[in-house]
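Figure S4 source data
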Amino acid sequence: MTQTTKQGNKKIYDGYKSFQYLEAGVDYKEYKLSKENDRVEPYVYPVAADEEETVQEILEQDYIVSMHEHTFVMPENLQEFYEFRRQGRDWTGFEALSQSGLDVIFENFMDGTAMITSQAGWKWSDVIHDLGIRFSDIAHQDMVIKAERISDLYRAKKEGKIAFVGALESSTMIENELDRLDVLYGFGIRTMGIVYSEANQLGAGLREPNDGGLTVFGKQAVRRMNKLGITIDVSHAGDKTSLDTIEASEKPVTINHAGARALWDTKRLKPDDVIKACAEKGGVIAIEAAPHSTITHNHPEHNIESFMEHFEYTANLVGIDHVAFGPDTLFGDHVGIHDLLAGQLSIKSAQMANLQKVEYVKGLENPAECFPNIVRWLVKKGYSREEIRKVVGGNIFRVLEATWAK
C-alpha cells in the first residue's frame, strides 16, 4: 500500500493571492484567514502503487469537474465571521486549487450569508456586489478563467488552467423580476437553484412544512432560464417543487449537491422519485459531501465511505450516466461555520438530531482534497476507465451541452 501525496494535473500557478493588487489596511480590512491546505491532517485514500499510477493518469488526461464548491477562504477566527461577511470581500484559495486536480469548478459563492446590507442573505444588491468583487479578483490573475461557454471548459485544461463556472444556489434575489435572470447571465452565472431552503417567489424549499410546488412565476422563470442557457438546479428545493421544476423545464435539470434519502432520511437528501425524474429528463445527480449530509446507517461517521455509498446507491438506481460529484466544500472550519450559521443555512431542518458528529469529513475536507481521493476510491473499487470518465466530468459536460445556449 502507498500513502503517496504526489499530485498530477497541477496548474500553471504563479503564486497569486486574492486582492494582492490592493493594499491591506488601506483598501480593505485584513483578517487572518484559515489555511488553504493542511488545516487538518491531510488524508490520502489508500491505494496500491499501480492503482496510484492509474489515478494520476486519470487526473492528467480526463476532465475533472466539481459541480458544486465554495472556493472561498474563511477567517480563522469564526467569531469574526459576521464582521468579515459584512465587508463584502471574499478570498479565493488559488494556491490549493492549483493542486486540486480540478479542471472545472462550479463556484456557488456564499450568497446565503451575503450580509453587507442584511443579516438574511440573498439580497439583490449584495449578490451583485459579491459577484463583482470575486470576478474582479479573478480578472487580475491567470490560473482561473471565467467560463461562459462550453469551449472555455475544454480550453482551460489544455492551457493548464481551471474553468470557473458562476453558479447560485437560489433564485431568491430576482424577487419577481424575470429580467434579473438576464442580468445574472450577463454577469457570468450559468447555473441557478430554483430555491434555497426557505420558500421564495418561485417555489418551496426543503425547510418548508408545506410544499405547494412551482409557482406560476416559477414556471416563467424556468422558461426564461431555458432560453438564456442557465442550467436549473433543485438541490435545495422541496420534493414537489423539484418534481414540478423537472416537468416544467424543456431541458435537463440537475441536483448538483445532494444524496439519497433512502440511505439517510433527511429533507436535505432526495427521495428516489425525484432522483429518477431528474435522470429521466436527462439530468445528473451530483453527490454532496458537506459535513453531516451524506451519512448512511452503514457508515454513521461522515467520511468518504459514506459519501461513496450514496454515489453507488444513486448509480444503481438510475445508471452510471446520471451520477457525478458536487462535494460542496470550502477552505476553513466547515463544521464550525455550520454551527455558527445554523439558522441562516437551515442546518437543523437538514440534519438528523441523533447524528454522530465529526470535526471534518475525512478524505473530503476541502476543494483541493476531494477529487484525488474520489478517483482513488473509484480505481480501488474496480470501476472502469470509461465509467470514471463519465462520473468525474463526462456526465456533467453532457448536461451542459444540452442546457447552455449556443
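Figure S5 source data
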Amino acid sequence: MTKFRNLSQGRGYLAIPGPSVMPEAVLNAMHRPAPNIYAGELVDMMPPLMEDLRRIAGTQHHVAMYIGNGHAAWEASLSNVVAPGDKVLVPATGRFGIGWGDAATGLGAEVEVMDFGLQSAMDIDQIAERLEADTAHEIKVVLAVHVDTSTSVVNDIAGLRAALDAADHPALLMVDCIASFACDRFEMDNWGVDVMVTACQKGLMVPPGVSFVFFNDRAAAVREALPRVSRFWDWTPRANPQEFFQYHCGTAPTHHIYGLRAALDMIHDEGIEAVWDRHETLARAVWAACDAWGSAGDLALNIADPALRSHAVTALRLKAPQATELRDWVEGNIGLTLGIGLGMAPKDSPESHGFFRLGHMGHVNGQMVMGMLGGIEAGMSALDIKRGTGALEAAAKVIGGA
C-alpha cells in the first residue's frame, strides 16, 4: 500500500462560518503604521464609511460602531432599549438566539424563550398568537436572529414584522445579522426592523474586533426615555458624534477602519445585489454536493427545506464520530479547516462528534467552494465514509449555470 503523503503545505483554507477568509486588499490596507487619531485621513474616512454601512443594511437611519465582537453588539443594543424588569421575547432557532436572550437576562430583563428547536425556522403563526395574547403589551422587545450560525437556518424577518403589526404590538423588533450581513438578503427599513446588530468578521471580511448597532427613530425614542445608559454603551454620541473620539468612546480601532474601508469598497464595486446572488449560487452548489453525498450515506443537511437555509453557512450531520474525524483529517492532511458543530449536542457528549459546518461567506468564489468540496470528498474517501457519488459534478453544474 502506498503511504499517504501529507498535502497540507501551502496556503490553508479556513472554511469556517467566521472569521471568514480575509482578502489581500483588506490585509494590505491594515498593514501600515499607526495613524494620527486627531486629524487627517482617518478622521475624514468615518462619515462616508458609516454611510456605506447604511447602504448595505438598507437603512436611512442611525449606526453606532463598537470596539468588540458580536456579543458586545448584543449588549450594546440591549443597553440602549431594555431596563431591568422589562419583558423580552426570544423566538430561538439555535444557540445564538438563546445567547442573545441570555445577554438580556444578564441586564436584568425578564426573558421568555420560544424555542423552535435546532432544525426549524421561527413559526410566525405561533409568535403571532403570543403577541396577540399580550394585550397589556408587557413585551418590550422581540429578539430575532436572521441567520443562526449554529443551525444555518434563515428566519423570516419581514414576516415577524407583519405579525407585530397585525397584533398592533409596539414591541421593538431587534435582529441579529452577524452571520447574514452582506451574505443573505437583508433590508432593514423595508422589513421594518427597529434595531439590527452585526460584526465585521464574516460577510464584511475584516478581522474580528469591531461590531455595529443600527437603529431607527423608534428605537432612539426608547433610548431617550431610559433614565440612564452607560457612557460606553450609549449609542447616541456614537451615531451623532460632535467630536471624532465619540465614534468609539475613545481611541478608534484604527487599523480595523482601514480594513473595513477596503472591504466596503470591494462590496460596493461588486454591488450588494451581486454579492447576494453570488452567495446564493455558491450555497446551492454546496447543497447540491451534500445532497449527492447524502443519497447513499449518513450525511444530511441540518435544514431540510432549501428555502430556510442560509446562503452564508451550512450545518451538516454525520454519524458520530465521523464529523470530527472528517474535520481532523482534512485539516491535518490537506490544509482545509471546517467548522465545528456548535450547540447541536452537549459539548462532551459522543453525539457532538456528529456535526460540522461549512462557511461560504464573504471573500469566496466558485473555485474556492469547489476546492472545499473536493477536499471533503478526499477526506470521506480516505476515511471510507459511506456516501453517494456525483457530488462534485452536481456542484459544478450549479456553478457552471447548467
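Residues 27-267 form a domain with the Aspartate Aminotransferase; domain 2 fold (CATH 3.40.640.10). The longest strand covers residues 139-145.
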